[in-house]
Design a protein that fits this description.
Blueprint lengths: L1 H16 L7 E13 L5 E14 L12 E5 L18 E8 L16 E11 L5 E10 L20 E12 L3 E4 L5 E3 L2 E4 L7 E8 L2 E9 L5 E3 L4 H5 L5 E3 L8 E9 L2 E11 L4 E4 L4 E5 L3 E11 L5 E7 L1 H4 L9 E2 L4 E2 L3 E2 L5 E10 L8 E7 L7 E10 L4 H34 L4
Parallel strand pairs: 1-4, 2-3, 3-7, 8-16, 18-26
Antiparallel strand pairs: 1-2, 4-5, 5-6, 6-7, 7-10, 9-14, 11-12, 11-15, 12-13, 15-16, 17-19, 19-24, 20-21, 20-25, 22-24, 23-24, 25-26
């Protein structure tokens, strides 16, 4: 019984702390802004990169780095670390910026919140592009904002100052960049959370490509009004705003923008969708090509229906006897007499390309292996197609003369034999009595 209680207690503690390794602090770049009017009367913004620390703890904690500006994130309903679980601190890139509400003042509806707030935006990116997390940090204040252009009068922040904040809203995508094949199903991930119940939230999706911008989906929780499709409303109620593409087409390529608004906050994440279609590779000859010495054959390697445009086709030749050797084998020789056709534009907007050469049959090349290697960004390794050349010696004129003589002789003998048989048959008919 005591063992069971200990196990239950352990599980409870694990649930309380989420039973994961959580970072206590992160080094960050605080990109501060200095907005001023230049000598020509134009407004300019000077970006100032400052060393900062993102520290998780309680109000009054000692800063990890007392020489740096510290953003101390204290407990709230939202914990930024939950959105980067399983990732080491060295894999995260942290950026902090001030956030302007453009003079919009709304009392943030959480217990104990003061009338006014200063806002900061914290973005955590995985170093390998696996996800992007953006959180809004709220710093309570008893001073009203300076007005619509609050960025002109940012309150000064000292280098060693400690800013005590809480996380008010978070948005995350696990697919900042998506590579999709034609006809595939794709789910563009976007999730969000707010630190209070029943927020008045607006979620939108836009598609942007080559200057064109189209709204795909919009939902406002206050009115319940929904426009467009692609996002499940039941999932949206739980903070999952992911957008679904049931059948990826070439026209779907572009940047998808997931935006979430809870007044006075607005945040968006860009998700790039790249179409990648691997080539189909074929040769115009079989696995073995037989030619007579001195003969010529056009050999073509075609890469079909690939996207995007860039593809590399290389022809190699190698003696198959040494191709299987792992040590000391000579490298395949690249053929230099290869010609490329022009790119063919297919109806589905993919491309095709042919690399060909004219093979002059020589006995010294008999038994050699010719390989076409096709590389494309959609392929992890190149596609290779090969054939083996067999060259036969040409039949000499003496052979033809001998064969011709034999044929003529046979014809003469056959003619004489037929004449003899005809004559014998005629004589036998004349001797027959009536």
């Amino acid at each position: 019984m005591n063992l069971i209680l200990k196990i239950l207690s352990y599980l409870y503690l694990c649930a309380a702390v989420q039973c994961v390794h959580q970072v206590a602090w992160l080094p960050c770049q605080f990109i501060d802004e200095h907005v001023f009017v230049n000598n020509e009367g134009h407004t300019e913004t000077q970006l100032i990169h400052r060393e900062a620390m993102l520290q998780f703890g309680q109000k009054g904690d000692t800063p990890v780095n007392p020489h740096a500006l510290t953003f101390l994130i204290t407990g709230s309903k939202l914990d930024l670390r939950r959105y980067v679980e399983g990732v080491e601190a060295e894999q995260l890139e942290c950026e902090l910026r001030r956030y302007s509400t453009e003079g919009m003042h709304v009392r943030w509806p959480v217990m104990g919140a003061q009338e006014y707030n200063h806002w900061f935006c914290c973005t955590l990116r995985h170093a390998n592009g696996l996800f992007t997390v953006t959180g809004f940090l709220r710093r309570p204040s008893d001073q009203s904002p300076p007005g619509q252009q609050d960025y002109r009068k940012w309150p000064a922040i000292e280098d060693r100052e400690i800013l005590t904040t809480t996380v008010a809203m978070v948005i995350k995508t696990q697919s900042p960049s998506v590579r999709a094949g034609l006809g595939s199903q794709q789910k563009l991930h976007c999730q969000f959370a707010v630190d209070h119940k029943g927020p008045n939230v607006t979620v939108e999706w836009h598609w942007q490509h080559r200057g064109e911008r189209t709204r795909l989906f919009s939902h406002t929780s206050r009115t319940g009004q929904t426009q467009g499709s692609g996002v499940g409303l039941r999932s949206l109620a739980g903070g999952d705003a992911s957008y679904s593409l049931p059948f990826t087409k070439m026209s779907n390529e572009g940047t998808y923008i997931c935006s979430v608004s809870v007044i006075p906050l607005f945040v968006s994440l860009d998700i790039s969708l790249h179409i990648e279609e691997p080539p189909r590779v074929s040769l115009n000859v079989g696995p073995t090509l037989s030619l007579q010495e001195g003969g010529e054959q056009k050999v073509a390697c075609e890469a079909e229906s690939y996207y995007p445009l860039d593809v590399e086709i290389v022809w190699h030749v190698q003696d198959p006897a040494v191709s299987g050797q792992r040590v000391g084998a000579p490298l395949p020789k690249v053929l230099q007499n290869v010609l490329l056709s022009s790119h063919k534009h297919n109806q589905d907007k993919t491309y095709s390309l042919t690399a060909f050469f004219y093979l002059q049959a020589s006995l010294r090349d008999s038994g050699r292996q010719f390989t076409c290697s096709v590389s494309h960004q959609s392929l992890r390794v190149p596609i290779k197609k090969s054939f083996i050349l067999t060259v036969e010696e040409p039949i000499s004129w003496m052979f033809y003369l001998t064969v011709g003589t034999i044929v003529v002789t046979l014809v003469v003998v056959l003619y004489v034999l037929l004449r003899y048989l005809h004559s014998a048959n005629k004589q036998s008919v004349q001797k027959k009595p009536y």
